[in-house]
Amino acid sequence: MYASAYRALTVDIGTGDGKRLYRVAKSDPDTLYIGIDPVKENMLDTVKKSAKKPEKGGLKNLLLVIGAVEALPEELHGMADSVTVYFPWGSLLESVVKPIPESMLQIRSVAKPGAAFTIITTYQSIYEGAEIEKRGLPELSTGFFENEHAAALKELGFSTKVVRELTAEDVQEIGTQWAKRLISGRSRQYFSVTGTVSA
């Protein structure tokens, strides 16, 4: 497979416009980065840019794929050395926070045994009350991720290692358009959950 030419493979689920992944891929040419998002239109600019010749900004180690967490590409099963989910929304947010078994098992399916996973998320009732109510989302806290969430993930083959609260500066460095919107004039909590996929 195409991935065999690289040292490692990272799958980014809910990649949005792909611009963050483009920057990361450009700085790490030995890793293949695959971004997955259900909205084709969001990714078009980055797809066009990465398809150019290298001297014009093109990248060989970045692929953007249309897909959703409920049905990830079978071609990726067992391939990823790491899986990332940054600032999910909608059904993806619900999938990783509750967590929903069917969706988390899809995420697990693309990972190699022992692969790393990272989830970064935020929502608060003062800002996202309607979405929280609509999806029945739990209140976020470090304790929630270290206890109830970690226990639920363990049942699904994920081992939580580190939970930490991010600063606005941390989020600014991530550099996605969504992250910039989140920190614009608002004080809120951001959580990072990292761990491994069970062998």
Q: What is the average per-residue confidence, as pLDDT, rounded to a whole number?
A: 93
Tell me, briefly, the overall form. globular
Instruction: Write out the strand line-up for the largest beta sheet, numbering strands in chain order.
Output: 3-2-1-4-5-7-6
Helix content: 25-40%
Would you report the number of β strands?
A: 7
Distance between the termini: 22 Å
Structure classification: alpha/beta
Strand content: 25-35%
Radius of gyration, in Å, reads 16 Å
The biggest sheet amounts to: 7 strands, mixed
Features:
8 helices, alpha/beta, single chain, 7 strands, 199 residues, 39% helix
Structural account:
The protein is of the alpha/beta class. It is 39% helix and 27% strand. A seven-stranded mixed sheet has the order 3-2-1-4-5-7-6, sandwiched between helices. The longest helix is centred in the C-terminal third of the chain and has 14 residues, at 142-155. The protein is globular.
Summarize, please.
The chain has eight helices and seven strands.
Lay out the secondary structure.
Layout: E1 8-13, H1 19-27, E2 31-37, H2 40-50, E3 62-66, E4 80-86, H3 90-97, H4 101-110, E5 111-121, H5 125-135, H6 142-155, E6 158-166, H7 168-174, H8 177-183, E7 190-197
Parallel strand pairs: 1-2, 1-4, 2-3, 4-5
Antiparallel strand pairs: 5-7, 6-7
